[in-house]
Amino acid sequence: MINHKLKYTEFIKSEAKRLGFLSCGIAKAGFLEEEAPRLEQWLNENKHGQMQYMENHLDKRLNPTLLVDGAKSVISLLLNYYPETTQVDDTYKISKYAYGQDYHFVIKHKLKELLYSIQETIGEVGGRAFVDSAPVLDKAWAAKSGLGWVGKHSNLLSKQVGSFFFIAELIVDIELEYDTPVTDHCGSCTACIDACPTAAIVAPYVVDGSKCISYFTIELKENLPNEMKGKFDDWAFGCDVCQDVCPWNRFSEHHNEPLFNPHPDLLTMTKQDWEEITAETFAAVFKKSAVKRTKFQGLQRNINFLKE
After folding, report:
1. Residues 168 and 56 placed together within one structural domain of the fold
2. Assembly and interactions (predicted)?
3. Rg (CA), the chain
4. I need a labelling partner for 288 at 20 to 30 A (CA). Which of 28, 96, 251, 267 fits?
Protein backbone atom coordinates (compact mmCIF):
# COMPACT_ATOMS: atom_id res chain seq x y z
CA MET A 1 0.00 0.00 0.00
CA ILE A 2 1.35 3.42 -1.01
CA ASN A 3 1.80 5.87 1.84
CA HIS A 4 0.26 8.90 0.14
CA LYS A 5 1.00 11.20 3.08
CA LEU A 6 4.70 10.41 2.88
CA LYS A 7 4.77 10.68 -0.90
CA TYR A 8 3.01 14.06 -0.87
CA THR A 9 5.25 15.34 1.92
CA GLU A 10 8.41 14.38 0.06
CA PHE A 11 7.09 16.04 -3.09
CA ILE A 12 6.26 19.30 -1.24
CA LYS A 13 9.70 19.45 0.38
CA SER A 14 11.52 18.82 -2.90
CA GLU A 15 9.41 21.48 -4.64
CA ALA A 16 10.18 23.97 -1.84
CA LYS A 17 13.88 23.32 -2.38
CA ARG A 18 13.54 23.77 -6.14
CA LEU A 19 11.88 27.16 -5.58
CA GLY A 20 14.84 28.31 -3.50
CA PHE A 21 13.47 27.97 0.03
CA LEU A 22 16.09 27.31 2.68
CA SER A 23 14.00 24.68 4.43
CA CYS A 24 10.47 23.37 4.77
CA GLY A 25 8.75 21.83 7.81
CA ILE A 26 5.18 20.68 8.35
CA ALA A 27 2.98 20.68 11.47
CA LYS A 28 -0.57 19.55 12.16
CA ALA A 29 -2.96 22.52 12.09
CA GLY A 30 -4.79 23.22 15.34
CA PHE A 31 -5.10 25.51 18.34
CA LEU A 32 -1.78 26.81 19.71
CA GLU A 33 -2.31 25.95 23.37
CA GLU A 34 1.10 26.95 24.69
CA GLU A 35 1.23 30.24 22.80
CA ALA A 36 -2.28 31.45 23.73
CA PRO A 37 -1.60 32.51 27.36
CA ARG A 38 1.80 33.99 26.41
CA LEU A 39 0.32 36.10 23.63
CA GLU A 40 -2.56 37.29 25.81
CA GLN A 41 -0.18 38.31 28.61
CA TRP A 42 2.10 40.13 26.13
CA LEU A 43 -0.87 42.08 24.76
CA ASN A 44 -2.27 42.81 28.24
CA GLU A 45 1.10 44.27 29.22
CA ASN A 46 1.00 46.53 26.13
CA LYS A 47 4.26 45.15 24.80
CA HIS A 48 2.90 45.69 21.29
CA GLY A 49 2.83 49.48 21.72
CA GLN A 50 0.70 51.03 18.98
CA MET A 51 0.65 47.88 16.84
CA GLN A 52 -3.10 47.61 17.35
CA TYR A 53 -3.40 45.02 14.59
CA MET A 54 -1.82 42.50 16.99
CA GLU A 55 -5.05 42.56 19.00
CA ASN A 56 -7.22 41.74 15.97
CA HIS A 57 -8.38 38.24 15.05
CA LEU A 58 -6.88 36.63 18.15
CA ASP A 59 -8.93 33.50 17.59
CA LYS A 60 -7.56 33.11 14.05
CA ARG A 61 -4.05 34.01 15.18
CA LEU A 62 -4.11 31.07 17.56
CA ASN A 63 -5.98 28.63 15.34
CA PRO A 64 -5.33 28.41 11.57
CA THR A 65 -8.33 26.12 11.08
CA LEU A 66 -10.38 29.32 11.42
CA LEU A 67 -8.38 30.95 8.62
CA VAL A 68 -8.60 28.15 6.07
CA ASP A 69 -11.65 25.90 5.73
CA GLY A 70 -10.80 22.32 6.59
CA ALA A 71 -7.15 23.18 7.36
CA LYS A 72 -5.15 20.10 8.33
CA SER A 73 -1.51 21.05 7.81
CA VAL A 74 0.69 24.14 8.22
CA ILE A 75 3.64 24.07 5.83
CA SER A 76 6.31 26.47 7.10
CA LEU A 77 9.05 27.72 4.80
CA LEU A 78 12.23 29.70 5.37
CA LEU A 79 13.82 31.96 2.76
CA ASN A 80 17.35 33.24 3.30
CA TYR A 81 18.07 36.99 2.99
CA TYR A 82 21.60 37.18 4.43
CA PRO A 83 23.51 39.52 2.08
CA GLU A 84 26.94 38.95 0.59
CA THR A 85 28.02 42.52 1.33
CA THR A 86 26.72 45.00 3.88
CA GLN A 87 26.68 48.79 4.20
CA VAL A 88 29.87 50.79 4.67
CA ASP A 89 31.00 51.48 8.24
CA ASP A 90 29.92 54.62 10.06
CA THR A 91 26.68 55.25 8.22
CA TYR A 92 22.96 55.18 9.01
CA LYS A 93 21.90 51.56 8.87
CA ILE A 94 18.88 49.69 7.58
CA SER A 95 17.95 46.09 8.40
CA LYS A 96 19.47 43.58 6.02
CA TYR A 97 16.05 42.18 5.19
CA ALA A 98 15.20 45.50 3.49
CA TYR A 99 18.26 45.68 1.21
CA GLY A 100 16.48 44.26 -1.83
CA GLN A 101 12.90 44.04 -3.08
CA ASP A 102 10.04 43.82 -0.60
CA TYR A 103 9.99 40.21 0.60
CA HIS A 104 6.18 40.09 0.66
CA PHE A 105 6.04 40.08 -3.14
CA VAL A 106 9.07 37.84 -3.67
CA ILE A 107 7.82 35.15 -1.27
CA LYS A 108 4.14 35.40 -2.25
CA HIS A 109 5.12 34.59 -5.82
CA LYS A 110 7.09 31.50 -4.71
CA LEU A 111 4.27 30.35 -2.40
CA LYS A 112 1.70 30.61 -5.18
CA GLU A 113 3.97 28.57 -7.41
CA LEU A 114 4.36 25.95 -4.69
CA LEU A 115 0.60 25.76 -4.12
CA TYR A 116 0.05 25.46 -7.88
CA SER A 117 2.59 22.58 -8.06
CA ILE A 118 0.84 20.84 -5.17
CA GLN A 119 -2.54 21.15 -6.87
CA GLU A 120 -1.10 20.01 -10.22
CA THR A 121 0.50 16.90 -8.73
CA ILE A 122 -1.75 15.93 -5.83
CA GLY A 123 -5.08 17.17 -7.15
CA GLU A 124 -7.86 18.94 -5.25
CA VAL A 125 -5.98 20.76 -2.48
CA GLY A 126 -7.45 23.86 -0.87
CA GLY A 127 -5.06 26.25 0.80
CA ARG A 128 -3.84 29.78 1.36
CA ALA A 129 -0.42 31.41 1.31
CA PHE A 130 0.66 33.70 4.16
CA VAL A 131 3.60 36.09 4.37
CA ASP A 132 3.77 38.07 7.56
CA SER A 133 0.64 40.11 6.77
CA ALA A 134 -2.11 37.85 8.11
CA PRO A 135 -2.87 36.75 11.68
CA VAL A 136 -0.54 33.74 11.69
CA LEU A 137 2.03 33.11 14.44
CA ASP A 138 4.73 32.19 11.97
CA LYS A 139 7.57 31.65 14.45
CA ALA A 140 5.42 29.33 16.55
CA TRP A 141 4.49 27.26 13.49
CA ALA A 142 8.04 27.14 12.18
CA ALA A 143 9.24 25.92 15.59
CA LYS A 144 6.44 23.34 15.76
CA SER A 145 7.53 22.00 12.39
CA GLY A 146 11.14 21.53 13.46
CA LEU A 147 12.73 24.40 11.52
CA GLY A 148 14.38 25.84 14.63
CA TRP A 149 13.65 27.12 18.11
CA VAL A 150 12.53 30.56 19.27
CA GLY A 151 15.62 32.21 20.76
CA LYS A 152 15.97 34.58 23.70
CA HIS A 153 15.58 37.49 21.25
CA SER A 154 12.24 35.94 20.16
CA ASN A 155 13.44 35.23 16.61
CA LEU A 156 13.49 31.75 15.14
CA LEU A 157 16.99 30.23 15.31
CA SER A 158 18.51 27.27 13.52
CA LYS A 159 21.80 25.57 14.35
CA GLN A 160 22.49 25.15 10.64
CA VAL A 161 21.64 28.59 9.25
CA GLY A 162 21.19 31.08 12.11
CA SER A 163 18.27 33.51 11.87
CA PHE A 164 18.60 35.76 8.81
CA PHE A 165 15.61 34.35 6.96
CA PHE A 166 11.96 35.12 6.30
CA ILE A 167 9.20 32.76 7.45
CA ALA A 168 6.11 32.04 5.37
CA GLU A 169 3.30 29.47 5.40
CA LEU A 170 0.98 27.51 3.23
CA ILE A 171 -2.03 26.29 5.17
CA VAL A 172 -3.64 23.37 3.33
CA ASP A 173 -6.56 21.00 3.77
CA ILE A 174 -4.69 17.70 3.35
CA GLU A 175 -2.99 15.55 5.95
CA LEU A 176 0.75 15.14 5.61
CA GLU A 177 3.66 13.61 7.55
CA TYR A 178 4.44 15.95 10.45
CA ASP A 179 7.84 17.04 11.73
CA THR A 180 8.78 17.29 15.38
CA PRO A 181 10.15 20.37 17.19
CA VAL A 182 13.88 20.72 17.87
CA THR A 183 15.38 21.52 21.26
CA ASP A 184 16.48 24.97 22.42
CA HIS A 185 20.19 25.67 21.94
CA CYS A 186 20.53 29.14 23.47
CA GLY A 187 22.00 27.66 26.67
CA SER A 188 23.33 30.25 29.10
CA CYS A 189 24.16 32.75 26.32
CA THR A 190 22.78 36.27 26.83
CA ALA A 191 24.55 38.01 23.92
CA CYS A 192 21.32 39.40 22.43
CA ILE A 193 19.98 40.61 25.78
CA ASP A 194 23.27 42.33 26.66
CA ALA A 195 23.65 44.00 23.25
CA CYS A 196 20.14 45.39 22.70
CA PRO A 197 20.63 49.19 22.50
CA THR A 198 17.23 50.02 24.04
CA ALA A 199 17.02 47.07 26.48
CA ALA A 200 13.94 45.83 24.63
CA ILE A 201 14.61 42.17 25.52
CA VAL A 202 13.14 42.53 28.99
CA ALA A 203 13.65 38.87 29.94
CA PRO A 204 14.93 35.79 28.10
CA TYR A 205 12.39 35.05 25.32
CA VAL A 206 10.37 38.23 26.04
CA VAL A 207 10.72 41.30 23.82
CA ASP A 208 8.90 44.50 24.70
CA GLY A 209 7.94 45.46 21.16
CA SER A 210 7.24 49.04 22.22
CA LYS A 211 10.95 49.49 23.15
CA CYS A 212 12.40 47.91 20.01
CA ILE A 213 14.28 50.09 17.49
CA SER A 214 12.41 48.34 14.64
CA TYR A 215 9.13 49.40 16.23
CA PHE A 216 10.23 53.02 16.63
CA THR A 217 11.68 53.38 13.13
CA ILE A 218 8.96 51.51 11.21
CA GLU A 219 5.72 51.09 13.16
CA LEU A 220 5.52 54.27 15.27
CA LYS A 221 3.87 56.98 13.22
CA GLU A 222 4.24 59.90 15.66
CA ASN A 223 7.36 61.69 16.92
CA LEU A 224 10.12 59.52 18.34
CA PRO A 225 10.36 59.80 22.14
CA ASN A 226 13.10 62.09 23.47
CA GLU A 227 14.17 59.57 26.10
CA MET A 228 15.40 57.34 23.25
CA LYS A 229 17.83 59.96 21.93
CA GLY A 230 21.30 58.52 21.44
CA LYS A 231 20.13 54.92 21.90
CA PHE A 232 19.43 53.94 18.29
CA ASP A 233 23.01 53.04 17.39
CA ASP A 234 22.58 54.72 13.95
CA TRP A 235 19.70 52.44 12.87
CA ALA A 236 17.41 54.38 10.50
CA PHE A 237 15.10 51.51 9.49
CA GLY A 238 14.78 48.37 11.59
CA CYS A 239 17.62 46.93 13.66
CA ASP A 240 19.73 43.76 13.41
CA VAL A 241 21.76 44.00 16.63
CA CYS A 242 20.27 40.95 18.38
CA GLN A 243 20.89 38.86 15.26
CA ASP A 244 24.33 40.30 14.51
CA VAL A 245 25.66 39.31 17.95
CA CYS A 246 24.07 35.84 18.01
CA PRO A 247 26.76 33.12 17.87
CA TRP A 248 24.54 30.92 15.68
CA ASN A 249 24.68 33.50 12.90
CA ARG A 250 28.31 32.71 12.23
CA PHE A 251 26.78 29.89 10.16
CA SER A 252 24.78 32.29 7.97
CA GLU A 253 25.57 31.93 4.28
CA HIS A 254 24.64 34.61 1.78
CA HIS A 255 21.42 34.20 -0.17
CA ASN A 256 21.18 33.45 -3.89
CA GLU A 257 17.97 35.36 -4.60
CA PRO A 258 18.76 38.12 -7.15
CA LEU A 259 15.66 40.08 -6.12
CA PHE A 260 17.14 40.55 -2.63
CA ASN A 261 20.29 42.22 -4.00
CA PRO A 262 20.45 45.89 -3.00
CA HIS A 263 20.37 48.90 -5.28
CA PRO A 264 24.07 49.52 -6.10
CA ASP A 265 24.03 52.94 -4.41
CA LEU A 266 22.64 51.71 -1.09
CA LEU A 267 25.74 50.02 0.31
CA THR A 268 28.05 53.00 -0.28
CA MET A 269 25.76 55.74 1.10
CA THR A 270 27.51 57.81 3.79
CA LYS A 271 25.82 59.64 6.64
CA GLN A 272 25.96 62.80 4.54
CA ASP A 273 24.26 61.00 1.63
CA TRP A 274 21.48 59.87 3.97
CA GLU A 275 21.07 63.36 5.46
CA GLU A 276 20.83 64.93 2.01
CA ILE A 277 18.59 62.25 0.47
CA THR A 278 15.92 63.65 -1.84
CA ALA A 279 12.50 62.23 -2.60
CA GLU A 280 13.81 61.28 -6.07
CA THR A 281 16.80 59.37 -4.69
CA PHE A 282 14.57 57.68 -2.12
CA ALA A 283 12.17 56.59 -4.88
CA ALA A 284 15.04 55.25 -7.02
CA VAL A 285 17.07 53.43 -4.34
CA PHE A 286 14.06 51.99 -2.54
CA LYS A 287 11.82 51.51 -5.59
CA LYS A 288 10.46 48.11 -4.55
CA SER A 289 11.96 47.92 -1.06
CA ALA A 290 10.26 47.37 2.31
CA VAL A 291 11.81 50.73 3.33
CA LYS A 292 8.93 52.37 1.45
CA ARG A 293 6.73 51.32 4.37
CA THR A 294 8.13 54.17 6.42
CA LYS A 295 7.74 56.59 3.47
CA PHE A 296 10.20 59.37 2.63
CA GLN A 297 8.97 61.54 5.51
CA GLY A 298 9.35 58.67 7.99
CA LEU A 299 12.92 57.99 6.90
CA GLN A 300 13.74 61.70 7.17
CA ARG A 301 12.23 61.78 10.67
CA ASN A 302 14.41 58.84 11.71
CA ILE A 303 17.60 60.33 10.24
CA ASN A 304 16.94 63.74 11.83
CA PHE A 305 16.44 61.99 15.17
CA LEU A 306 19.77 60.17 14.77
CA LYS A 307 21.83 63.21 13.81
CA GLU A 308 20.50 65.64 16.43
Report:
1. yes
2. Monomer.
3. 20
4. 251
Is 239 labelled as part of a ligand binding site? yes
81 DSSP 8-state letter: -
- Distance, C-alpha 173 to centroid of its chain: 25
Task: Give the CA angle between residues 232, 259, 253 to the nearest 5°.
Answer: 70
Q: Which residues does the annotation mark as catalytic?
A: 132
Task: Answer whether residue 16 is part of any domain.
Answer: yes
To the question of whether residue 132 is assigned a binding role by annotation, the answer is yes
Q: Is 73 helix (H, G, I), strand (E, B) or coil?
A: strand
Domain of residue 131 covers: 4-83+96-172
Quick one: which H or E segment has residue 93? strand 93-94
Q: Please list the ranges in the chain whose pLDDT falls under 70.
A: 1-2, 308
> Are 270 and 196 found together in one domain?
yes
Same structural domain for residues 168 and 195?
no
Looking at residue 201, its pLDDT comes to 96
Is 23 annotated in a binding site? The answer is no
pTM: 0.94
Q: What are the beta bridge partners of residue 235? A: 93
Q: pLDDT value at position 113?
A: 97
CATH assignment of the domain containing 138: 3.40.109
pLDDT digits (tens, 9 = 90+) for 183-236: 999 999 999 999 999 999 999 999 999 999 999 999 999 999 999 999 999 999
Residue pair 198/213 in contact (Cβ under 8 Å)? The answer is yes
Q: How much is the pLDDT for 43?
A: 84
24 marked as binding residue: no
189 marked as binding residue: yes
Query: Three-state SS across 221-289?
Result: CCCCCHHHCCCCCCEEECCCHHHHCCHHHHHCCCCCCHHHCCCCCHHHCCHHHHHCCCHHHHHHHCCCC
